[in-house]
Specification:
- There is one protein chain.
- By secondary structure, the protein is an alpha+beta fold.
- Helix content is 38%, strand content 26%.
- It has 2 domains: 3-175, GAF domain (Beta-Lactamase), CATH 3.30.450.40; 193-419, Phosphatase 2c, domain 1, CATH 3.60.40.
- The strands form 3 sheets. The protein has a 6-stranded antiparallel β-sheet, with helices on both faces. The protein has a 5-stranded antiparallel β-sheet with strand order 7-16-15-12-13. Strands 8-9-10-11-14 form a 5-stranded antiparallel β-sheet.
- A hairpin with a 5-residue loop joins strand 2 (62-68) and strand 3.
- Helix 3 runs antiparallel to helix 6, helix 7 runs antiparallel to helix 8 (266-280) and helix 10 (372-383) crosses helix 11 (388-403).
- The longest helix has 46 residues, at 147-192.
- The termini are far apart.
Length: 423
C-alpha cells in the first residue's frame, strides 16, 4: 500500500459505514464479543467472506488468535508470514492471489478445507501507538481487494484497535480489582488463623508477629497452651511468598492444631505433619519450621528445627546471645525419611528464646548488605529489659532503618518467649 493510497479520501457510503460501526463498537463488550464484532465489522464494510483477529502479546512477541471464523485458538510468531510482516512494518498488506504468495501459510486451509483466494491484512494500532494486533480479511466477494478497500481498511482498523484496546484495559482493571479483593480475603483468612492472644503462663511472657512481603505470605506461627505448664510453639516459613506459600503455611498450622486435639506429643506431631506435607506439596515446595514444647515447670524447650535456623537464645546472665542450628531437613522434602530425636534448650532466669525467620536476617539494604545475626544480637543486648512486644518492635525498627528505601522482599515472622528473672 502506498502513502498516497493511505492519504486518499474514502467514499461517503464507506465513511458512513465506518462511523456507524464506530458507534456500535463504543458499546461495552467483553473481549470475546468485541473480537467477534470487529470481524463482523470488517466483513461488512469490505465485503469479505471471513475474518480473523490476531492479538499481539509483546511479552512473548506472539500473535494469538482469540476469535476467528472457523478456526481454533492458535499462537504464532509475530515475525513470520504475512501477519508477521504486517506487525513489523505496521502497514496494510494486500494479497490478490494467496497461493501465489510465498508468505502465505496454507496450513489453515489444510486444516479446515477452506480455500483462501485473496487477503487484506491490516495492523491494529491503538491511540497511543501501541500494537494491539492484526485484522485479516479473506476472499472479497466478486474478486480481490483494491486500493479503495485498503483506504477504508486503514480507517476501520484504527477504530477497531482503539475499541479493542479499551476492552483489554477494562478487563485488566477488572481482573486486578478481583485479584485485589481475593487477596484481601486471603490475607484476612491467614491472619485470622494466628493466635488472637498470647498464653498466660506463670513466669513466662510471649510475643508473636508476622509481616508478609505481599498481601499474603509463606510465614506462619502458633503458640498453643496445652495445660497449666506446657505450651506448644510453632514457626514456619514456606518457600516463596504469596498465595501458594500462604496455603502451605496455613495447612501446616492447621495440621498441628488437629494433632494437638488428638493428643499427639511433640515427636509424633512433627513426624505426622512432615509425612503429610511430603505427600501433599509439589516437588519444589517445602517448609522450614520450628516445633517446640515449652515445659514451664522444668524451664525446658524440647524441639525440632526442620531447616529453621539460626535459633537465638538471649542469655541474661551474660547479656549475650547463644546460637543454635537446625536439627533436621525442612519439612515436606520426601516421605519416609528417618527423623532425628528432638533436642532441648534450657532457659535460665531472664533468658529469651527468639524464633525469627530469614526475612529479618537476610533483609538487604541498598548496598546489598544483609542485616545479619550480629545486628539482631545487638538489638537484644540493648533492649532485652523491655516487654517482648516492644523488643520485637525495636528489632523491626532496626531492620527498616538498616534497609532504608530498599523494599521488603521476604516475609518477616517472630516468636519470642521469655522466662522471668524471678521464675
Amino acid at each position: 500500500m502506498t502513502n498516497e493510497a493511505q492519504a486518499s479520501p474514502i467514499g461517503y457510503e464507506a465513511l458512513k459505514q465506518v462511523l456507524d460501526i464506530t458507534r456500535k463498537l463504543a458499546t461495552p463488550f467483553d473481549l470475546q464479543t468485541m473480537l467477534e464484532e470487529v470481524i463482523a465489522a470488517g466483513r461488512q464494510v469490505l465485503h469479505a467472506d471471513r475474518g480473523t483477529v490476531f492479538l499481539y502479546e509483546p511479552d512473548t512477541d506472539e500473535l494469538v488468535v482469540k476469535a476467528a471464523d472457523g478456526f481454533d485458538a492458535v499462537r504464532m510468531s509475530a515475525r513470520t508470514g504475512i501477519t508477521g510482516e504486517c506487525i513489523q512494518t505496521r502497514s496494510v498488506i494486500n494479497v490478490p492471489e494467496a497461493y501465489s504468495d510465498t508468505r502465505f501459510n496454507r496450513s489453515f486451509d489444510a486444516r479446515t478445507g477452506y480455500r483462501t483466494k485473496s487477503l487484506l491484512t491490516m495492523p491494529l494500532i491503538g491511540y497511543d501507538g501501541a500494537l494491539v494486533g492484526v485484522l485479516q480479511l479473506l476472499n472479497k466477494q466478486g474478486g480481490a481487494f483494491d486500493e479503495h478497500d485498503e483506504r477504508v481498511g486503514v480507517v476501520l482498523a484504527a477504530q477497531c484497535a482503539v475499541a479493542l484496546q479499551r476492552v483489554r484495559m477494562t478487563e485488566q482493571i477488572i481482573v486486578k480489582e478481583r485479584m485485589d479483593r481475593e487477596l484481601a480475603v486471603a490475607r484476612q483468612i491467614q491472619l485470622g488463623t494466628l493466635p488472637a492472644r498470647m498464653p498466660e503462663l506463670e513466669d513466662y511472657e510471649f510475643a508473636g508477629l508476622t509481616l508478609p512481603a505481599e498481601e499474603t505470605g509463606g510465614d506462619t506461627f502458633d503458640i498453643v497452651s496445652l495445660d497449666d505448664e506446657r505450651v506448644m510453639l510453632l514457626i514456619g516459613d514456606a518457600t516463596g511468598h504469596g498465595v501458594g506459600p500462604a496455603i502451605c503455611a496455613t495447612q501446616m498450622r492447621s495440621m498441628l492444631r488437629v494433632a494437638l486435639r488428638l493428643g499427639a506429643g511433640l515427636d509424633h506431631a512433627f513426624a505426622q505433619i512432615d509425612e503429610q506435607l511430603a505427600c501433599d506439596l509439589p516437588d519444589e515446595r517445602f517448609v522450614t519450621a520450628f516445633l517446640g514444647l515449652l515445659n514451664a515447670r522444668e524451664h525446658t524447650i524440647q524441639y525440632h528445627a526442620a531447616g529453621q535456623a539460626p535459633l537465638l537464645v538471649y542469655r541474661a546472665a551474660m547479656n549475650d546471645c547463644e546460637w543454635f542450628g537446625s536439627t533436621t531437613l525442612p519439612m515436606g522434602v520426601m516421605p519416609g525419611l528417618p527423623r532425628p530425636n528432638s533436642e532441648t534448650i534450657v532457659l535460665g532466669p531472664g533468658d529469651i528464646l527468639a524464633l525469627i525467620t530469614d526475612g529479618v536476617y537476610e533483609y538487604h539494604n541498598g548496598s546489598q548488605q544483609m542485616f545479619g545475626e550480629p545486628r539482631v544480637a545487638e538489638v537484644f543486648r540493648r533492649h532485652h529489659a523491655e516487654s517482648l512486644s516492644d523488643l520485637s518492635s525495636r528489632l523491626l525498627e532496626s531492620v527498616r532503618a538498616f534497609g532504608g528505601d530498599a523494599p521488603q522482599l521476604d516475609d518477616i515472622t517472630m516468636v519470642l518467649v521469655r522466662r522471668s528473672r524471678s521464675g
